[in-house]
Amino acid sequence: MSIARLHSRAVIRIEGPDARHFLHNLLTQNVETIGDGELRFGVLLTPQGRLMVDVMVWARNDALWLDVPVAAREALVQRLSMYKLRLNVTISATDDAVFVAWGEQPEGFVADPRLESLGYRAIGFAGETTASEDDWHAHRMSMGVAEAALDTPQDKTYPIEANFDLMNGIDFHKGCFIGQETTSRMKRRGTIKNRILPFTFEGEAPAI
């Protein structure tokens, strides 16, 4: 069993009577039906339907916790605060850390919703780590799983190109979300010209 802390990820807490409704109308994922302790994967898109920020959404203790790229957290808090308008929602950054595990499932960790063999995630784990973040990235890349903030050009990539539709990141049966029109059209037409795929190589890794 391997456990690593992801220093590249940070946490946002969203609470209040309108929290689920608020996020449900923004993200590609269905937020209104998340059960307590459940984890779901989604993304906030630009109005043109391109990737802005990928998120893991946790439902815990009557609040929603967003596991997001650390480099995007401050801007995301500002953007979400702009979107909330008059809704009864409180948005705040927290000091909680994000952890991942692969191999066996440690206590307090939840299965990563993107891929069964990928592993597990937790917020605020108090035990010892046994692996580095680089080890985790090597593991996920061997599974063919890309992370939008690290592996794709931001504001240029569509979620289907980054395989979000294959990794439980888009609910095509929910109501509207930002960028839905473009995303749904690509899915209906089935004319996807680009996909992120894993590959192997010999020697040094090619430049990003």
General description of the model:
It is a single chain. The chain is of the alpha+beta class and 208 residues long. The protein has a single domain (2-189), classed as Gyrase A, domain 2 (2-Layer Sandwich), CATH 3.30.1360.120. 20% of the residues lie in helices and 25% in strands. It has 5 helices and 9 strands. The strands form 2 sheets. It has a 5-stranded antiparallel β-sheet with strand order 3-4-5-2-6, with helices on one face. β8 (110-111) and β9 (120-123) form a beta hairpin. It starts with a strand and ends in a 19-residue tail after the last helix. The model has no long low-confidence stretch (mean pLDDT 90).
Low-confidence stretches: none
Q: What name does CATH use for the topology?
A: Gyrase A, domain 2
Question: What is the count of DSSP helices, taking H or I runs of 4+ residues?
Answer: 5
Helices and strands, in order, run as EEHEEEHEEEEHHH
Strand neighbour order, sheet with most strands: 3-4-5-2-6
Distance between the termini: 29 Å
Count of extended strands:
9
Query: DSSP strand (E) fraction?
Result: 25-35%
CATH architecture assignment: 2-Layer Sandwich
Assign a percent range to the helix content: 10-25%
Mean pLDDT metric: 90
**Cα radius of gyration in angstroms:** 17 Å
**Helix- and strand-based class?**
alpha+beta
